[in-house]
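Help needed: design a sequence for this.
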């Protein structure tokens, strides 16, 4: 039976169970070299209060956006909009929630992350480089023949990439298998999967959703990047997915709706997902495609278009680079 205890955070008392407390205890510990997470007990980068994390994350996300745009500009092709829309969600995940060890990518107790919307590879690569999975100079070779960083994540080429993705619709099934495997091995590690809102038009996603609930996979957290756009236009026009929260609830999921650019809400959702028992959680995150640079925001055109020289200049100005 789980034992409950009370911890005090930001002046409020909360009841959480011991499993949760052991995973992400808020011990103050400065980690200057992120790759040195191997030496941290938990594998979580920001071992600080939520308030401190919220102060530090915007700068990390800003840097990640800059790296994404530099990378896309250098390659001359790739997916701008969907990388920027999910930048806050994944920066928060990698820094505060995901247990991982860049110097030991195969660490058996790591949390698993699946980028089901694999076209957001530039975001994934910027984060992996930031954590030292490979040298930052690799980012300059995105999408080049024989290079480590292909247009979609390839687990055989790129250290830190958990699983190859890019064919939309498959990631939730993969994450189900990972989470079930972890449960079978009695590990308290978790699986996270990022889905696009256009992606969930794929029927396979709903087969997987039934499976997660049927097997009560509570060490699974899906995140839906609800940016409202897909490759051919607005999700509502191509094939409507609302009422989205009701659908997931009807499929037996715990549903959390948030603003996917507000770190306070993002961190709260990850924590609530971690504390949920008996059902999987989906975080439906309202986001802006192309977030952070006005010329890319909410523009279908920039789904798969890299910035030109002038656009990069403007983007840098807006991002304070
Ligand atoms: C099975 C499959 N069909 C089509 C594509 C081509 N494709 C790449 S991205 C995309 C649109 C995805 O939209 P969404 O999931 O909303 O992604 P986001 O808006 O976050 O970029 C499509 C259709 C694909 N990668 N896989
Ligand atoms: Mg979308």
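Sure. Designed sequence:
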């Amino acid at each position: 039976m789980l034992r409950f205890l009370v911890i005090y955070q930001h002046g409020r008392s909360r009841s959480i169970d011991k499993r949760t407390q052991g995973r992400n205890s808020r011990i103050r510990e400065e980690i200057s070299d992120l790759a040195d997470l191997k030496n941290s007990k938990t594998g979580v980068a920001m071992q600080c209060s939520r308030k401190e994390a919220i102060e530090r994350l915007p700068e990390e996300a800003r840097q990640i956006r800059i790296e994404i745009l530099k990378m896309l500009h250098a390659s001359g092709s790739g997916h701008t909009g969907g990388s920027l829309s999910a930048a806050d969600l994944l920066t928060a995940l990698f820094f505060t929630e995901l247990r991982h060890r860049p110097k030991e990518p195969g660490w058996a107790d790591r949390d698993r992350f699946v980028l089901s919307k694999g076209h957001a590879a530039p975001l994934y690569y910027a984060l992996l480089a930031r954590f030292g999975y490979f040298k930052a100079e690799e980012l300059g070779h995105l999408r080049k023949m024989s290079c480590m960083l292909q247009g979609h994540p390839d687990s055989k080429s790129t250290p830190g990439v958990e699983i190859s993705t890019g064919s939309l619709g498959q990631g939730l099934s993969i994450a189900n298998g990972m989470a079930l495997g972890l449960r079978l091995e009695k590990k308290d590690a978790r699986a996270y999967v990022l889905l696009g809102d256009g992606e969930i038009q794929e029927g396979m996603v709903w087969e997987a959703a039934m499976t997660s609930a049927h097997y009560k996979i509570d060490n699974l957290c899906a995140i839906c990047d609800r940016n409202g756009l897909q490759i051919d236009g607005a999700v509502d026009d191509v094939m409507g997915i609302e009422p989205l929260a009701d659908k997931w609830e009807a499929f037996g999921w715990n549903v959390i709706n948030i603003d996917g650019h507000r770190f306070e809400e993002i961190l709260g959702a990850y924590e609530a997902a971690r504390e949920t028992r008996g059902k999987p959680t989906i975080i439906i995150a309202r986001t802006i495609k192309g977030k952070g640079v006005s010329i890319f925001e909410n523009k279908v055109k920039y789904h798969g278009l890299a910035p030109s020289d002038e656009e990069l200049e403007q983007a840098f100005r807006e991002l304070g680079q």
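Strands lie at 4-9, 12-17, 112-115, 191-196, 220-226, 229-230, 233-234, 254-259, 281-286.
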